Amino acid sequence: SNSTPKEQINQKAMIKNASLSEEMQQDSVECATQTLEKYNIEKNLAAHIKKEFNREYNLAWYCIVGRNFGVNVMHETKQFIYFYLGQVTILRFKSG
């Protein structure tokens, strides 16, 4: 299933890997949490999170939302975060 039950969104974020500033890490988690309250389809989550971060921090941000995926991406220094929010995994990075 590609939908996220609403009860999962209240769980604390668990950051697995990040090279963002503390402020940007917090913004990432807050943005994802708010987005999960609005959307429950993963591609919509990713699109909205990407749009919000591009608006806030300029273009060239990418966002992947899912439940089970491997990651191997080229990203700019200090521009990467990979975290869990409930059952959802969120990867956000800047490239180019």
TrEMBL record:
<keyword id="KW-0493">Microtubule</keyword>
<keyword id="KW-0505">Motor protein</keyword>
<protein>
    <recommendedName>
        <fullName>Dynein light chain</fullName>
    </recommendedName>
</protein>
<dbReference type="GO" id="GO:0035721">
    <property type="term" value="P:intraciliary retrograde transport"/>
</dbReference>
<dbReference type="GO" id="GO:0044458">
    <property type="term" value="P:motile cilium assembly"/>
</dbReference>
<dbReference type="GO" id="GO:0005929">
    <property type="term" value="C:cilium"/>
</dbReference>
<dbReference type="InterPro" id="IPR037177">
    <property type="entry name" value="DLC_sf"/>
</dbReference>
<dbReference type="GO" id="GO:0005874">
    <property type="term" value="C:microtubule"/>
</dbReference>
<keyword id="KW-0963">Cytoplasm</keyword>
<dbReference type="GO" id="GO:0005868">
    <property type="term" value="C:cytoplasmic dynein complex"/>
</dbReference>
<comment type="similarity">
    <text>Belongs to the dynein light chain family.</text>
</comment>
<dbReference type="Pfam" id="PF01221">
    <property type="entry name" value="Dynein_light"/>
</dbReference>
<keyword id="KW-0243">Dynein</keyword>
<dbReference type="InterPro" id="IPR001372">
    <property type="entry name" value="Dynein_light_chain_typ-1/2"/>
</dbReference>
<dbReference type="GO" id="GO:0045505">
    <property type="term" value="F:dynein intermediate chain binding"/>
</dbReference>
<keyword id="KW-0206">Cytoskeleton</keyword>
